[in-house]
Amino acid sequence: MANATIHTVLKAHAAGGPLTLRHPRWADFETWSILRKDNKEWLSPWEPGWSDSVLSRVTYRTQLSKYKKLVQNGQAYPFHLYYGAQETLIGACNLTHIERGSSQSARLGYWVAERFTKQGFARAAVSAVTQFGFETLGLHRIEAAVQPENAASITVLESQNFEREGTARGYLKIDKTWRDHIIFAKLSSD
Asked: How many whole angstroms separate alpha carbon 95 and alpha carbon 125?
C-alpha cells in the first residue's frame, strides 16, 4: 500500500477530454464557490440541503483544514475534478468514511456541474478514484448510495461494475425529507 497525501494527483481521460483529480486548495475558492452556487438547483435533488453561507471563505477554509486532517489520518480523500489544459474546475469525487481493520472499506460520492455532464467525466473520475482506493489505499470494498430516481448516477456506477446490493431505507436527508438510496458496491476482487 503506497503512501497517499494531500498532494496526491490522479489523471484520467474522459470522452470530453483530459481530467485531473487533485485535493481542494485555497486557490480554488472563488471558482468552487461560483460553480457550487451556479449548480445549486442542478444538485439540490441529490444532495443534503445547504445555504449560501457554506460558500463563504471562512467555511471553505475550515473545510480545507478538515480535509487535510482526514487525509493525514487516512480517513478520507477528497478530489476536485479539473478539465483540460486550463484545469477548469467541473466537480468533485470523494472517498470518505474509510475504515481499516477487517473492513478495509470506503464510501464514494461525486458530482459534476450540469454543463459538463454526458461527457464521461463522472465515469472517468469514479474509475480513477476507485482504482486509487484499491491499488494505492489497499481497500477491499467501495460503496456508493444513489437515489432510485438518479438514473444518470446509476448508469455511471453500473458502467464501472459497481453491483446493486439493495435499498437503504431513509438513508439520507435530502431537501428536508429522509430518502431511500440504492446501495452499490465494488470489491477489489471484482
From this structure: 11
**How far is the first Cα of the chain from the last one, in angstroms, to the nearest whole number?**
19
Assign 3-class secondary structure to 15-66.
CCEEEEEECCCHHHHHHHHHHHHHCHHHHCCCCCCCCHHHHCHHHHHHHHHH
pTM for this entry: 0.93
| 3 state SS of 72 | helix
| Residue 135 neighbours by CB under 8 Å, 6+ apart | 2
Query: pLDDT digits over 31-76, tens only?
Result: 999 999 999 999 988 888 777 788 999 999 999 999 999 999 999 9
Domains in the chain, ordered, with CATH? 9-187 (3.40.630.30)
